[in-house]
Design a protein that fits this description.
Layout (H helix, E strand, L loop, with lengths): L2 H17 L5 H8 L3 H8 L7 H10 L5 H13 L2 E3 H4 L5 H13 L2 E6 L10 H15 L5 H11 L9 E7 L1 H4 L5 H14 L5 E6 L13 E4 L3 E5 L3 E5 L2 H15 L5 H16 L2
Parallel strand pairs: 2-3, 3-4
Antiparallel strand pairs: 1-7, 2-5, 5-6, 6-7
Helix pairs in contact: 1-5, 2-3, 4-5, 7-9, 8-9, 11-13
Length: 278
């Protein structure tokens, strides 16, 4: 969990405790129908309340006008760390729509991915299997068809002038068995075609290549204004200059270990041959 996020959550808890000053925890818990431990965790910055929790809290302490302020504080926190539990409450489609807004606002987009093919280059079948795996992990609604349609719709940006996509993938991502072999084979063929797109510069870091930093979390850079980093529990949306600069440095470092053009074709052919081996 990011330090900024935890600090924000702790500050929100302190503000809630201040609003509750005249109401004992036990009484507030009874009014809300919550276990007292939930009150304690929220005030101590150990649990993140929902917008509904905050509105109920404000009413229960007799200060309903504070709900708007509390909601704004929560949005400020989640502008940096957006938990998958909250984002996926209504399925994957809303998450895809939110990301599309950032893609449309950007002209130069950079990506690093070491575990799977990036969403902008996924085939519909591959994307469906990826969404299914994450829906199972997070026990979220399985709106697979809607999520796939939203992702494929966003890929239309690859064919519009005015944007460039600099994408670097670790070779290990080409072998990850997140889908059946025939789906993976079609996905590799899709990457071969992507190398020829005017708007895409696709690099692959071969297994065994010297890398100056360990290949870690996948992330996207949107111009020089935003980095979105994926972790198991959340996405981090980082718009402060220090963080964006750091991730740009990581991307530059990894991209120098990548191969492009005909050399990337050879890495893809090697992965394809591995799939076809008995």
């Amino acid at each position: 969990m990011s330090t900024d996020y935890q600090q924000g959550r702790t500050a929100l808890g302190a503000r809630l405790r201040e609003l509750r000053a005249d109401v004992p925890q036990r009484v507030l818990a009874e009014r809300l129908g919550w276990p007292q431990s939930k009150i304690s965790k929220i005030e101590g910055g150990r649990q993140t309340p929902t917008q509904e929790d905050l509105a109920a809290w404000a009413r229960a302490v007799g200060k309903p006008a504070a709900a708007e302020e509390l909601g704004a504080r929560l949005l400020g926190i989640e502008s940096h760390s957006r938990s998958w539990r909250r984002q996926l409450r209504a399925g994957h489609r809303p998450v895809q729509d939110a990301l599309t807004v950032e893609y449309e606002r950007s002209t130069v987009l950079r990506a690093w991915e070491g575990s799977m093919v990036v969403g902008m280059l996924q085939t519909p079948d591959y994307a469906r299997h990826v969404f299914a795996r994450y829906a199972e992990l997070h026990q979220s609604p399985r709106d697979l068809d809607e999520a796939v349609r939203a992702r494929v719709k966003r890929q239309e940006l690859l064919y519009r002038a005015g944007r460039t996509f600099h994408i670097v993938i670790w070779e290990a991502a080409l072998h990850a068995g997140v889908a059946p072999r025939h789906v993976l084979a079609a996905q590799l063929d899709r990457l071969v075609g992507a190398i020829g797109l005017d708007t895409v510069k696709l690099g692959i870091v071969p297994l065994g290549a010297d890398v100056a930093v360990p290949p870690a979390n996948g992330f996207w850079l949107y111009d020089d204004r935003l980095a979105i980093v994926e972790d198991w529990h959340a996405e981090l949306w980082l718009d402060d200059s220090d963080s964006v600069t750091l991730y740009r440095r990581v991307w530059n470092t990894l991209s120098r270990s990548a191969v492009y053009g005909s050399h990337a074709h050879r890495v893809l052919a090697r992965a394809r041959a591995h799939l076809e081996a008995p």
